[in-house]
Amino acid sequence: MGPYDSAISAGSSTCSPSSSAKPSDIDGLLAGAGYKVRSTELHQVAQRLERLETVMVNAPAEISQLASDALQCNPSDIASWVDSMLFEFNQQPVSMPSDLSDFSDLTYIDGVVSPAVNQAVGNNSWMDNRTPQQQELTQQLMVVTAMEEDSGIRLVHMMITCAELVQRGELPLAGSLIEEMQALLTRVNTACGIGKVAGYFIDALSRRVFTRTPQALCCATGWSNDSEILYHHFYEACPYLKFAHFTANQAILEAFDGHDCVHVVDFNLMHGLQWPALIQALALRPCGPPFLRLTGIGPPSPDGRDSLREIGLRLAELARSVNVRFAFRGVAASRLEDVKPWMLQVSQTEAVAINSIMQLHRLLGSGPTRASAMETVLGWIRSLNPKIVTVVEQEANHNQPEFLDRFTEALYYYSTMFDSLEACSLQLEKAVAEIYIQREICNVLCCEGSARVERHEPLAKWRNRLGAAGFRPLNLGSNAFKQASMLLTLFSAEGYIVEEHEGCLTLGWHSRPLIAASAWQPIPYQTQQQQQ
What we know:
The chain is of the alpha/beta class. The protein has helices at about 25-30, 40-55, 65-70, 80-90, 115-120, 125-130, 130-170, 170-185, 195-210, 215-220, 225-235, 240-255, 275-285, 305-320, 370-385, 405-420, 425-445, 460-470, 475-490, 525-530, and strands at about 1-5, 10, 110, 110-115, 260-265, 290-300, 325-330, 350-355, 390-395, 470-475, 495-500, 505-510, 510-520. Helices cover about 50% and strands about 15% of the residues. Helix 13 links the parallel strand 5 (about 260-265) and strand 6.
């Protein structure tokens, strides 16, 4: 573990942000950094996607395979792909099943009755106008739905009971209950709703009960080598990571105002997805772009590649195209506590920003070693005297010592998370994003001790912890709120909500906050002593 000896730099003597870059060049560089859609095409693509969504909602189930086949092609031109899908759909006649031809005013998708059926079921006059066979079919559908709902409710109660048995150490009884739940799971739809959530949580309980060592559980999942791929798909499937990046970038941009030499330390580089937007924003500063240094921390590559340097090279190309002087340094570390401040090579002449996206909770733990890890990292962060520390964490309480409390909280939190994922129209990204979430669930519920790293805590606890460590909160401001709200316009779902809480921002689904962003600044030592 250690920093790379070579740094990557890019620079230009001119301050014009666009004198040497063509739009096509910038689009290519953005695509290499993880941005798939050209900015000039967003309006047209949005119109086409709305048309495609309308057609697919009213399309028969027989052509669902067409969409699946098209997605597997992974086309490079999304606009032309949407047009081709619309053409294919228009060639298919929309017809009703032969035995339901009289239901001309209803829409059926994949065999599920539309809400119009539920509204009509309560109308006796409508029932009187239908044949006995049609009435019997409608009643059968209602019975099936009621049975599935009953099975879902029973699964929730059984999972809570099983978690209580695990907490008491009654593993044989818990194992028997797991087998009953697995049998009951066959009676519900596991593609969405409580069936999907129950499937993941029953799997986690099974791992917890039937596998003895937490270390074996974590290794057996095989996720460690694929974490970056899963992270990328989670980024594409839902707005949570985009919200984190946009909000942190806006706060960092404002903190760097008036500084000619700036340095960002990223605790989790992960493809560098956050930084193209900041580079472009710095290029457009009225006073000209500063010299930007980026230090990216990440795990060593399992295949021996210098993946951090590869990411740095792509970002350097982007910075060069918009005339931002740029230098990159990669620090390979398996754990954040293994990083030492001297590895970051911070200069006193720089304005420093520390960026932590869902990383600080990994320093938490119940033992004295873990407590000292958090204190040590927060201590050297403060010693660097950064202009700003951006912190984004899950708005959850998964660090409780009692297993039952942790299980109940996780069940509530991830049920909401899966519900929000249903709004994703990208089926591949959605499927892989669910694996990303499953990995978190497994770690929260299956592992203990040092193996349990997903120790999420709510914003209130982070306020107390960072305040005690010598940091004061910074108001994220109206610009960050506007940026986050604009981000949500890119998603068709109306359930995502951005809220402001005492200068911090949260992004949630309906009434449940799921992720919280905050900004901090170290209190000068003299000021802190005077306050004490």
